[in-house]
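Course assignment 3, question 2. Fill in each field.
Student: A.L.
Task: Predict the tertiary structure for the chain below.
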Amino acid sequence: MPWSSSATTDPTTSPSERSRQGGVVIIGGGLAGCEAAWRCAGRRVNVKLLEMKPKHFSPAHQNGDLAELVCSNSLRSASPSSAVGLLKEELSALNSLIMEAAFAARVPAGQALAVDRAAFSRYVTDKIEANPYIELVSGAKADSLDIPRPARSPLIVAAGPLAADELVQALRETIGREFLHFYDALAPIVTRDSLDMSKIFVGDRYEEPGRGSYLNCPFTAEELDVFLSALLEADQTEARKFEEARFFEGCLPIEVMARRGLRTLTFGPMKPVGLVDPKTGKLPAAVVQLRLENEAGTHCNLVGFQTRLTIPSQRQVFRLIPGLEKAEFARYGAVHRNTYLDAPEVLDQFQRLVNRPDVFLAGQISGVEGYVESAAQGLWAGENAARQFLGLPLLVPPADTAIGSLTNHLTKKNAKRVFEPSNVNFGLFPPIPPETPKRLAAQFRLDRARNSFQAFLKEISDVQSE
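Answer field:
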């Protein structure tokens, strides 16, 4: 697709005509980059999407397709009353490619939106490759923000938290400050046919045993004591000497939780509440839940068991879980460093670098945590980048919507807090009126968000999507 420096763009022209008029350049084919590309294409703005795979891979990725996930439940709750469920609702209303792919590749997981990871990535890749407004450049490892692009063609950096060192250095030099970081951990995956199903029961919380999507490994009090002792004594991989291990609270390694006390586990990922063991008719002392990792049901993820234990320790400790005595590991848990910007200091309200308004940031590198959140910020960066290219006013979503609460978290300075990445949560939303009855508070927040979002949808409809 040849590009030139033409600055005049008519959204009604054909793709071949528009290929001579520039567009938007995007670095990174993860969820944020693909969502941004899809949004721009929906505005009939040409996109050049640069993705370093399959020639180069980050430490956390293995699949050569776009929008790769590392966990089947990366998209979390589908409940419409949860903050992330509300965000999914808003994304779907904005014609999100990621939500479309997620529902196409969904696998059973109770209230969670879990997907077959390979099918999900393939769906996104097929859609991106087939879109006439998107040029996918594979194997392109960007090392600069000064990528050749036509005049007035914005750049979106959606390279993810494990961006190539050269690109991180280019960003560091541009913003004139160091990046921040925390450590994110992955849970192990085991093969289903290696499990001892005589010790495991099927069931979702508060459902009758035998009904549901989760495999439940119940502990007696004695088994729990043995497991906890082994977990606390197990060897761990250590961060390098110059790195401070700072974990994201929403994704703590299981051994870090164990050091905070047994109740942290039994009120967290090992809570037995709502899971009656059909063999005893009682609640176990603790439960480890396994979730299907793929549509075929051949692999299972240990829910909440992200870890930095060494591989020998994982084999030793996790085989103490009832039913996992002979478990075969398809993937061991791991830990990796996530790099992100001090967003309120370097981004304006439209997710642009303050000192480079031609450059937008999207995804986890911008300071959100989670795949759904990354997709949301990618979509909105794409919306505003397309608007900037078309000469339209840029927009900020209302802070009382889910997508707006994230944007506000990234771009509003607050002298009373140290900036940290965040999942979407109702704590990011504006306070509700103090006179609102407590029993009505949750519904008030949801109704306010939905009403505000519907009004905002009308505001952004001045350019027709395909």
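Instructor remarks: The mean pLDDT is 85. The two ends are 20 Å apart (CA to CA).
Grade: pending
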